[in-house]
């Protein structure tokens, strides 16, 4: 029989990481773009070192912030251990953005003219186990009597296609804006960050896929958080952002929960 | 907090069934359309009893044949426990054929004008765990030192849109025809069944999705088998078809394996 192709080699490890699996908090944190690591078989995808460490490969700082939030909220955290350059787990398999051959100003040679088989390999190796793990985790929490608030944590680059972005933290939502509304109200005029609704991206850009898959159908409270990555480039910045976001989430979820209990 | 929606109720059970999980044979059997059972939440989908027991709901006889083959080949068998009327697990989420509002001559009222959230719910509840289980099983077999020959087992209706079909067993393949070629050659003129290549469907109809996802990328030998369902409507027919197919698979895989060993 012909030798089988294997996607991951021994040093690659698994695609999905779960931290604080026994967390008792309401929040389930998800980081689709946590890592810039490439499976060994892809080498550099033909990219320069600049590109390989840039925001096209991952969301710098997002995992560090999510880990701090995981501690503060006693929240389970699920993240993808490989770069979105190979497969962007926040996009469905049919989306051209799942595997890009151009991202911002970078051409990605290793993603050009891929066969259907190669796309399937990436889908089954990276996307299916990742979104499957989120599904399983939500089901397991339900079985343990825990409700779930789904919170995805991202970062964005300050300068995109040469344009500077003023927004510092984006609070993103799809058709269910309950939690996002509350978070935007709760900060009032007092936020140390410049917050915006559905900036620098919104649902029309296809960025709410994970929320759409798991939160909207089940009626779970949900939000996607985007932090400008220059603000979380070091530990002090990561700590400040995590403190702010954990407090904001805790208060916003608290009032939503309380209102519902009063109401019914 | 709002009550969560759950897809499966207690009596529904799990979407994926795995039988003979410790099977030592080369073959991994998959049955996407094994069952006509609907999750309780969907009632009848607005369909008549005739439609609910017809081939639009499942592949009658396919699971029974696959179970016999599982014994004969000591093969692990993975099947979907719910009807393709809710989600056809042999189709990717973007395909209009994944959730049909019309199938052959039947309108499916419960599938009309679905929201994106409802489609996502079916995708995460039925498709992700099913294709994820196949992925996991192939990986686990590899870890145990077992290669995998992926064989999907289906049945088709004798009369479709009023037309009678002469083919009795279809041997279907996508771009990798190694095993299908060998099976079609092996029978020569002596088959008790009328066999055809890529009939009554073929890859252009999108029916090779499971093979495309798992077998083609990894270079696994693979084939999709379609048996006309009037031939496997009772135990005698199921036994005869399983005997024939198990022998044909065993011989065909044997020669392919042997040739490769000689060659390399």
TrEMBL record, chains A, B:
<dbReference type="InterPro" id="IPR011227">
    <property type="entry name" value="UCP029730"/>
</dbReference>
<protein>
    <submittedName>
        <fullName>N-formylglutamate amidohydrolase</fullName>
    </submittedName>
</protein>
<dbReference type="InterPro" id="IPR007709">
    <property type="entry name" value="N-FG_amidohydro"/>
</dbReference>
<dbReference type="Pfam" id="PF05013">
    <property type="entry name" value="FGase"/>
</dbReference>
């Amino acid at each position: 029989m012909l030798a089988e192709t294997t996607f991951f080699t021994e040093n690659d490890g698994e695609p999905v990481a779960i931290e604080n699996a026994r967390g008792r908090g309401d929040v389930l944190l998800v980081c689709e773009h946590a890592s810039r690591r490439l499976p060994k078989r892809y080498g550099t995808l033909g990219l320069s070192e600049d590109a390989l460490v840039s925001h096209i490969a991952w969301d710098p700082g997002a995992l560090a912030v999510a880990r701090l939030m995981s501690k503060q909220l006693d929240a389970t955290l699920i993240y993808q251990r490989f770069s979105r350059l190979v497969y962007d787990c926040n996009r469905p398999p049919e989306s051209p953005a799942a595997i890009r051959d151009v991202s911002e100003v970078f051409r990605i040679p290793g993603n050009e003219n891929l066969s259907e088989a190669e796309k399937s390999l990436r889908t089954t190796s990276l996307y299916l186990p990742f979104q499957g793990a989120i599904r399983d985790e939500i089901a397991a929490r339900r079985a343990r009597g825990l409700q779930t608030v789904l919170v995805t944590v991202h970062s964005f680059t300050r300068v995109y296609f040469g344009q500077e972005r003023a927004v510092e933290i984006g609070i993103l939502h799809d058709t269910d804006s309950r939690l996002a509304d509350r978070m935007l109200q709760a900060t009032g005029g007092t936020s140390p960050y410049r917050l915006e609704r559905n900036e620098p991206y919104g649902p029309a850009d296809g960025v709410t896929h994970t929320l759409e898959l798991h939160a909207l159908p089940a009626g779970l409270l949900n939000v996607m958080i985007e932090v400008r990555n220059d603000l979380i480039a070091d530990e002090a910045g990561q700590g400040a952002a995590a403190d702010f976001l954990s407090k904001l989430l805790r208060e916003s979820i608290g009032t939503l929960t309380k209102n519902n209990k009063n109401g019914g």
